[in-house]
Amino acid sequence: MLIRIRKPSDVASSEITPESHYLDRRTFLGAIAAGAAGVVAEGAGAAGSRADQEDKLTPFEDITTYNNFYEFGTGKDDPSKNAKNFRTRPWTVAVDGHCAKPGKYQLEDFIKPYTLEDRVYRLRCVEAWSMVIPWRGFPLKNLIARAEPTSRAKYVEFTTLVDPSQMPYQRTNILDWPYIEGLRMDEAMHDLTLLVTGLYGKDLPNQNGAPLRLVVPWKYGFKSIKSIVRIRFVEEQPVPTWVVQNPREYGFHSNVNPEVDHPRWTQKQERRIGEFRKRPTLMFNGYADEVAGLYAGMDLKKYY
């Protein structure tokens, strides 16, 4: 089944196509003809991109069995095996730091003010593999507006749950727990940045970051932190977990850039899960038209 990638900010918020429709090309195209275009989004690009590229959605089975989620294991199939009994209810999300309206929310109350949208985004991982995923969520900027950050808030810091009784690999020292990530405020406010609660029209599976994760489609996948329990507005640049682990390999910005190789492999190409051939990596993962302006004047080889 083929899907034409259109502008993400134009995705309808009221349409969710069932998984069976996603996977059935004829049904999906018929739905589009009838006006159900809610799963369509664009990843426009700069030089070397394919503005009218047709991308095939990654099957649900692949999305949910090939994951990075080190709290549940370091193998790609470990999270789907080890997160089966992970409890995502009740779930509390704290919003605090430099903001006028901090609070602690049960997940249902946290999500209630927002209209959930369907958006199809490419996900590009630093290991040079990629997927095309139909996410369900709401723009992070809507939460930011609700929290009313003060002028001291220059960054947004995110924290994953710590619960070694449920997340077995938190009993190891493979990473410095809890998992932490961060964005500049302008990145966090961008229309493409989502807080995600589901995919393929369903609630997020545990191994994909249930019940709440971040998705920043122009950055490498490890920036899209999973199982979030805290969102904090801070003045100083956060120190993400992978920057602590290996600053030579993982920078704070981590924008998808084919011209900046990982020290152990090239980033000029990627392999879409489910395909054997490799394809050229797109600058900013194909979203350059929307986000390149955020980095005007920056040396993107230095600030990787």
Tell me the structural class.
Answer: alpha+beta
Radius of gyration of CA atoms, rounded to a whole number: 18 Å
Uncertain stretches of 5 or more adjacent residues: 1-6, 8-18, 25-53
Named CATH architecture: Alpha-Beta Complex
**How many individual β-strands?**
14
H/I helix tally: 9
Instruction: Give the distance, in angstroms, between the N- and C-terminal Cα atoms.
Output: 34 Å
Instruction: State which percent range the strand residues make up.
Output: 15-25%
Major sheet: size, sense and barrel closure? 7 strands, mixed
Task: Estimate nothing, just give the exact number of structural domains.
Answer: 1
Helicity level: 10-25%
Shape: globular
Order of helices and strands: EHHEHHEEHEEHEEHEEEEHEEH
Average pLDDT, rounded to a whole number, is 87
Q: CATH top level?
A: Alpha Beta
The CATH superfamily is known as Oxidoreductase, molybdopterin-binding domain
CATH topology: Sulfite Oxidase, Chain A, domain 2
Blueprint of the fold:
Elements: E1 2-4, H1 19-23, H2 25-33, E2 54-56, H3 60-63, H4 78-82, E3 92-97, E4 103-106, H5 107-111, E5 117-124, E6 129-139, H6 140-147, E7 155-160, E8 180-184, H7 185-188, E9 194-199, E10 202-203, E11 213-215, E12 228-234, H8 241-245, E13 269-272, E14 279-280, H9 288-291
Parallel strand pairs: 3-12, 6-13
Antiparallel strand pairs: 1-2, 3-4, 5-6, 6-9, 7-8, 7-12, 9-10, 9-11, 13-14
